[in-house]
Amino acid sequence: MEVEIVKEFPHSRIADVRPRKRARSRWDADPLTDAKAQIGILCGQEVNIKSIKSSETTSNDTRPSQYAKDFVRQLSPPWRGDDKDGHYKFELGENLTSRYKIHSKMGEGAFGQVLECWDHERNEMVAIKIVRSNRKYRKDAMIEIEILQLLGKHDANTSRCVQVRNWFDYRNHICIVFEKLGPSLYDFLRKNSFRSFPIDLVLMHDMRLIHTDLKPENILLVSPEYIKVPDSNVSSNKGSHFKMLPKSSAIKVIDFGSTTYDFIDNNYVVSTRHYRAPEVILGLGWSYPCDIWSIGCILVELCSGKMLFQTHENLEHLAMMERVLEPLPSNMLRLADRDAEKYIRRGHLNWPESATSRESFKAVLKLPRLQVFPKIKKKKSKLG
């Protein structure tokens, strides 16, 4: 069997160039009048600007040398402000404080951006999550930091949760420094033309924490390396005869901005739509099972290569659940909150009578029941 080992996926190197405006802060004080604070305040280090000046100036010239100006300018990029959504603007190759140099952009989401940066102090690549300068997202980021630090204290390298290296507040952006990992399960599936592959999942419920937003995008492979193996399921007219498999199945969970404790009143809507549990949609309150439901959706997606519930509407989503599994328990329907009562009639889901369109009805009807998903059935038979 021919096997090709590939080191890692190429990163997209697209910088955000949208215009931004915001008032100057201490980070943008004149680098020649406040250089020491500018350089050392957050990075836990100090640079002796006086020694730079003395080596580059004459006894009659008390002004900082051009070398000193260039040195400080390199440590502190020019102020560009934020856009209307509060995203940080950067350029590849410049510094994020004196410690981190921006290497590439790894991703972007509602929270902000993730940059691949070189850590001058540890001599390694890291991933830095730069949160939008928005009050809500800053608050969520501080909650995430608290959760990450708690996980770090209880972690014996078996929790499979991403490790936080450091955090700081830079130009009104909370920046969280993480170990650099490989691609997410979603990215791997996409680059693999949505061919299936096996994976293990382990969570942190023994610490009474509920993640609430488990999805392929929030589960990363530890290593970016993968192998290419022959794919016997692809005919000659359907593209490549090879598929990719992770060289290592080790994973880590990321994004704890929505994580909460099980003893907190949990009645609000959580989880990304396609991985959302029925109790969340019905307004019944939720706990650990909402994470388990998300894991089930992820496993089916990995084993089949297709998202299980491709929908954006509550009633259609519930109908898909019944189609794939079985009718929703009557006690769940009976206890549904006021907002979800419209989906129920005479103790049953009001489907297909309340379907919003013929296309919606067809989308539900075409789904197979879980036990007859080809990949699931094949794997089950092997286990006996």
Automatic annotation (TrEMBL):
<dbReference type="InterPro" id="IPR011009">
    <property type="entry name" value="Kinase-like_dom_sf"/>
</dbReference>
<keyword id="KW-0808">Transferase</keyword>
<feature type="domain" description="Protein kinase">
    <location>
        <begin position="100"/>
        <end position="370"/>
    </location>
</feature>
<dbReference type="InterPro" id="IPR008271">
    <property type="entry name" value="Ser/Thr_kinase_AS"/>
</dbReference>
<dbReference type="GO" id="GO:0004674">
    <property type="term" value="F:protein serine/threonine kinase activity"/>
</dbReference>
<dbReference type="GO" id="GO:0005634">
    <property type="term" value="C:nucleus"/>
</dbReference>
<dbReference type="InterPro" id="IPR051175">
    <property type="entry name" value="CLK_kinases"/>
</dbReference>
<dbReference type="InterPro" id="IPR000719">
    <property type="entry name" value="Prot_kinase_dom"/>
</dbReference>
<dbReference type="Pfam" id="PF00069">
    <property type="entry name" value="Pkinase"/>
</dbReference>
<protein>
    <recommendedName>
        <fullName>Protein kinase domain-containing protein</fullName>
    </recommendedName>
</protein>
<keyword id="KW-0547">Nucleotide-binding</keyword>
<dbReference type="GO" id="GO:0005524">
    <property type="term" value="F:ATP binding"/>
</dbReference>
<keyword id="KW-0067">ATP-binding</keyword>
<keyword id="KW-0418">Kinase</keyword>
<keyword id="KW-0723">Serine/threonine-protein kinase</keyword>
